[in-house]
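Mods, move this if it's the wrong board.
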Amino acid sequence: MSRLLPGILLALMVLFIAGIMFALNPALIDQLWHRYHQNNSAQPQNVGFVRGNLTLRGHNGNHVLSVEIAGTPSQRQYGLMYRSSLPENAGMLFLFGSPRVVEMWMLNMDIPLDIIFVDEKGRIVRAYENIPADSEKTYGSQVPVVAAIEMNAGAFSKMGMTEGDSVDLAPFAGALRDLPKSEPPKDFNLQSLPKEIRN
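Not the wrong board. Structure tokens:
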């Protein structure tokens, strides 16, 4: 028994330190979960995206994006990976459920993108523009958010949008409510999206 004691103490110390790291940086859990699946998935599978229309409200008017909705773990994992192009006025809406600090990256992406982070009031709190494809650099929300939008590089500026503008998340309220409150999340019911926002 005395020979096992140092090993047990070491294991407990490692678990204690890991717990402190996750408590101080909740986004680290998302990063590690994402990296694990990236390393264990060579090609995306058919994850069954639902399509919908998303309205961005800028100081110079409204803009509608046709978005694929990524709310389940597998959908958020694959996102827009391996796409060779994205139609104009199209994008992907990532739903996270309860507000959380989120980090995203561009690994296995073949096209440059803009990434927009949206808080629970629908306000655009952070925008990254013209992100190069296939980069391991992370892009963080820096504050708690409930959604992120990926769109063609340059689209955010082309629409005249800026941080502080808003996104109409009201049609997605049911889906946000049904999402789990912690990671690793379970799949949510895509049927909770209202019919009027589905294509």
